[in-house]
Amino acid sequence: MIDDKKVLFSGMQATGNITLGNYLGALKNWVTLADEYETFYSVVDLHSITVRQDPAELRKRARNLLMLYIAAGLDPKKNCIYYQSHVSGHAELAWILNCFTYMGELNRMTQYKDKAAKHADNINAGLFTYPVLMAADILLYQTDVVPVGKDQLQHLEITRDIAQRFNAIYGDVFTIPEPYIAKTGAKIMSLQDPEKKMSKSDENPNASIYLMDDKDTIIRKFKRAVTDSLANIAYNEEQPGIKNLIDIYSVCSGKSIEDTVKEFEGKGYGDFKLAVGEVVADKLVPIQERFHEYEKDKAFIDSIIKENAEKANYYAQKTLRKVQKKVGFPDKIR
Fold first, then answer.
1. How many CA atoms lie within 13 A of 286 on its CB side?
2. In order of start, what are the domains of the chain with their CATH numbers?
3. Quick one: which of 11, 153, 169, 296 could link to 42 by a disulfide (CB 3.0–4.6 Å)?
4. What pLDDT does 28 receive?
């Protein structure tokens, strides 16, 4: 807890591009959380190198992600938005926590199995101990709540297990984090496979709308969106493609599901897809305009990077010093 506020932590990898799903499902709703929580949003570039990266491309993507956080509405004066690699405490705490994590626990992690299958030529130790670094990310700031989806719940569970194990040995060192369930937030599905979530790691570029897609690209992707042969705009589980498009239109237009269905009653899928594309493109224009402004203002973004790294380091070191003392490391001579 900081200044009587609970701490909320989340991070996003500096790989791929932020999707409409990331924005509508999470980022859009984070904007108001700074009033209620002390928030830390990390560009988790240490996690990114478990898969081989082009160095110049990684630096560019990390900066773009940080600027998109801000362009999407996260105030960098109210939210600590920083690069994970600029706070050495993440890696230092991860090593200590490695020594309190069991091989069997890591062997059970489904994300490791999935990534190992995708990158069979590079099954490195970092990929295996990825959950420990994630635990360090969270525990470093004495985090109270972590926004998680079902696919990330396993990582939070192992974080809680590690923290409880450490606390059982050394006393009340770490705050035990709880999952944060957003009050609002749409679950946006893939445009090409509406049975699975829209993902920035999807290999099919037509499956996802990216925040920086131009209007023509957005319209084209929605025109290609998978629907069905029922020719009926209805909100039900039997029509997952149409249901997904209704969700997107509803959230982006601010209209209810019922009003959206009524608006397009009797209309063809082609007209509906075009309307969804138009409303999404309009929704993203202000974000894209702000992003391009920040792109030109190097001094402003550099100042945010510096100030927020200093803030993150301050809180990280408080926890790290406590942990180092508990495990028996010698005091630093200052």
1. 7
2. 6-181+298-327 (3.40.50.620), 205-292 (1.10.240.10)
3. 11
4. 85
